[in-house]
Amino acid sequence: MEQRSYQNRKVRRNRRRKANANRFQIRMQKKLVVLFLIILLAFIGLSVKLIYINKVDGERYKKQILSQQEYDSKTLPYKRGEIVDANGTKLAYSEKVYNLIIDAKAINNSKKENALTETLQALDQYFDLDINAISNYISQNANSQYYVAAKQLEYETVAPFQEAKQENSAIVGVWFEEEYKRKYPYNTLASSVIGFTGSDNNGTYGLEEYYNTTLNGTNGREYGYLTEDSTLERTTIAAQDGCTLVTSLDTNIQNIVEKYMKQFNEEHKGEYRPDDDGCSNMGVIVMNPQTGEILAMSDYPNFDLNNPKDLTPFYSEEEIAQMDDEAMYDALNRLWRNYCISDTYEPGSVAKAMTIAAGLDSGKLTGNETYVCNGVLEVSGHPIKCHKHIGHGVVTVSQALEQSCNVALMHIGEQMGKETLMKYLYNFNIGLKTNIDLSGEARTNTLVYNVDDMVASDLAISTFGQGYNVTMIQMAAAFSAVINGGKYYQPHVVTEIKSADGTTVEKVEPRMLKQVISSTTSDTMKTYLANVCTFGTGKTAVPAGYLIGGKTGTAEKQPRGDGNYVVSFMGFAPVDDPQVVVYVVIDEPNVESQPHSTYAQEVAKNIFTEILPYLNVFRTEELSEEDIEQLQKLHILPSTDAEESTDGENNGDGENTDGQTDGESAEGGDPEVTYQVDPQTGNVIDPNSGQQLDPNTFEPVDPKSSDLDGLTGVENKPQDETGDDTTEISAGAGF
Ligand SMILES: [Zn+2]
Q1: Are strands 382-385 and 512-515 parallel, antiparallel or unpaired?
Q2: Ligand 1 mean position, distance from CA 396 (Å)
Q3: Residue 492: which of 691, 342, 285 has the closest Cα?
Q4: How many A from CA of 528 to the centre of ligand 1?
Q5: Whole-angstrom Cα distance, residue 638 to residue 621?
Q6: 530 C-alpha vs ligand 1 centroid, how far in Å?
Q7: What is the Å distance from ligand 1's center to 196 Cα?
Q8: From ligand 1's centre to the CA of 398, what distance in Å?
């Protein structure tokens, strides 16, 4: 108080002395002095109180504060939100785990005589711990209060010990620190889409990274304090748990996709390049073209989200031992990155769908044109080849797509001009990010042509998807617009964000960004694309019992002439009202001769075969005997019972000799005969004669006739001429 009056006198003196000074300055100084005084007084008050406490009750307080230190103020960790699929299946969740903490000081200072023995005995009984080590620690670090003896124990492990502790007051100095552990119940499923989280709750890749702050919450805190009569009171500020992400992913579809990707890779593992998987890269996207929702997305290989740094499934112990930090980092990033959104490539002939849609929609193309393909077209002095070097002859617009004729497409490009083509490609979002809600989407703005710089040959090769780069997700979203009535939807994975108590925070409605082409153009394109799969290069992709539409792609990689290709297939079903788009891209299939889109088509066919019935898309086409057998093996059709199969063995009624059935009866086939399918043509092979048979009619197919009518699927045969092109522009196979 003396000090205060002294200070007050000083303030008064100051006031008198500076009475004539600037008023503003005086006010400011006054305020500062008052503030200073308040702070000073607060400190003085606090010090006095502390000195008093120390003197009067020091020992008692010291004891209690120290012994309770760790208990009194602790963080209550929040629980990171879950990631669930469209059916509510948990793909990622956080589970509370417990770290076992030893308070050596509490044990040593316990009033219970047998505290140390009892505590060690209980620890030994309930946990898998090195009790000698703990015993040594307690005696050598008598004052330690925080020693982590075990990490991330599950509740089931901790609970019996806690019960024992309650019953025996001699068990002291052991407490449990709570934290959460991220768990991925499906281990590798959708790994590059989900991403993963370390113990710091920081998402890496995929949804975990993109939605990191949404998934995270806020820690709570528990404070202990002593009341006036020295009893310990607690206040708790509860943690706020993170939000849950509901996604459009479907675990069943994702499983089907991954099964066939694995099958492809295992089939072709080491086939041509001894140390490689079945290809250099592979991606599959399954999406709903009417909403932009992703149903499944995968690249190969997957990794274990519960152990993302484990390279042992992919490299030998020796190889891993030889890696330095940088090599290790590179290997992990290659594994973690999502090929479907992070890698770019030339799309090849799948892009012809966008080129023809642009021609029709702009009115530069009527659809009634015909073109003559002699196998090559000279553009500004550069001969650019068609994949069929002997030429397709006269083709209509639809046939140009069906047979994937590069020459016809180059004519179409010339007809519409570079401005029109580039305007439409831009509207299809080529060169722009799709802004899908996953972390790691590549930018492609520098990987597409600037229309002002385009020369005639640039336009020519652009029409069949060369000369510019895309990501898979760009292509799938653009193609969806071609066949859904012309609407471009922003692709997305999350459909709803829920708070920890289950209430909806945000519904993510489909975002239609633009009308790229008219619905009339889209209808025409659906017909053309269905023709591709009925008559043209896409027949291999057709699942039994369905009509689908689609487009094949075979793009020769840079540098041209090295024989490396990206083969692909983009398909949709049903044709009238597309519900699903399946896009398969295989980068450098590990085979001697790569340029065959059939590799991608077979994978797409397998996926369609299983997901269409699952999505309640009904079969409209007749099933052959072979089809029925295949579908029964996949449990898509119920197996015929014993009696019926006996009937089949003695089949002699001749009713089904053409291999066709009414789709309901399994009679008529010889169950002993298994037909192999020729991967190049999609035809089945007669096991007796080796002759190729049409998979639907079982009529012999004459490969020679295909050059004339183009209807037998033989155009999928190897086209080995691609590498011999010595011109400046080698157009690649492109069918
Ligand atoms: Zn052609």
Answers
A1: unpaired
A2: 11
A3: 285
A4: 16
A5: 18
A6: 19
A7: 47
A8: 13
Centroid of ligand 1 to alpha carbon of 539 (angstroms): 18
The DSSP element (H or E) to which 626 belongs, if any, is helix 625-633
Helix axes 2-17, 23-72, angle to 10 degrees: 150
Cα(709) to centroid of ligand 1, in Å?
A: 14
Q: How many angstroms does the Cα of residue 399 sit away from the middle of ligand 1? A: 10
pTM: 0.77
Give residue 345 CA to ligand 1 midpoint distance, Å. 23
CB 284, CB 603: distance < 8 Å: yes
Which pLDDT score, from 0 to 100, does residue 54 have? 54
CB atoms within 10 A of CB 467: 18
Nearest to 345 by CA among 557, 601, 561, 603: 557
> What does the alpha-carbon distance between residue 536 and residue 74 come to, in Å, rounded to a whole number?
69
Amino acid, single-letter form, for residue 375: G
pLDDT recorded at residue 390 = 94
How many angstroms does the Cα of residue 601 sit away from the middle of ligand 1? 21
Ligand 1 geometric centre to CA of 721 (Å): 14
Instruction: Kindly give the distance from the C-alpha atom of residue 319 to the centroid of ligand 1, in angstroms, as a whole number.
Output: 47
Q: How far is the CA of 732 from the centre of ligand 1 (A)?
A: 12
Kindly write down the DSSP assignment for every residue of 570-584, as one continuous string.
EEEESSSS--EEEEE
Cα 260 to ligand 1 centroid, rounded to whole Å: 32
List pLDDT tens digits, range 342-396: 999 999 999 999 999 999 999 999 999 999 999 999 999 999 999 999 999 999 9
For Cα atoms 129, 131, 134, give the angle at the middle one, nearest 5 degrees: 100
CB atoms within 10 A of CB 15: 12
For 407-442, how does the pLDDT look when each residue is reduced to its tens digit (9 = 90+)? 999 999 999 999 999 999 999 999 999 999 999 999
* CA 375 to ligand 1 centroid distance, Å: 5
Calculate how far, in angstroms, residue 387's C-alpha sits from the geometric centre of ligand 1.
7
Q: What is the largest CA-CA distance in the chain?
A: 126
- Three-state DSSP at 377 gives strand
CA of 386 to the centre of ligand 1 (A): 5
Is 56 within 8 Å of 194 (Cβ atoms)? no
CA of 348 from ligand 1 middle (Å) equals 15
Within 418-548, strands assigned E span 487-489, 494-498, 504-507, 512-515
Higher-pLDDT residue of 220 and 199 is: 220
Ligand 1 center to 429 CA (angstroms): 28
Neighbours of 650 (CB within 10 A): 7
Q: For the chain, what's the residue count?
A: 735
Ligand 1 midpoint to CA 542 (Å) = 23
Predicted local distance difference test score (pLDDT) of residue 691: 63
Residue of 587, 589, 595, 568 whose CA lies nearest to 270:
589
Q: Which long-range contacts (CB under 8 A, 24 or more apart) does 591-595 make?
A: 591/268, 591/271, 591/272, 592/271, 592/272, 593/563, 593/718, 593/720, 594/563, 594/564, 594/565, 594/567, 595/387, 595/554, 595/556, 595/565, 595/567, 595/718, 595/719, 595/722, 595/732, 595/733
What is the CA(109)–ligand 1 centre distance, in A?
Answer: 91
pLDDT-derived band at 704, boundaries 50, 70, 90: very low
| Distance from C-alpha of 294 to C-alpha of 285, rounded to nearest angstrom | 7
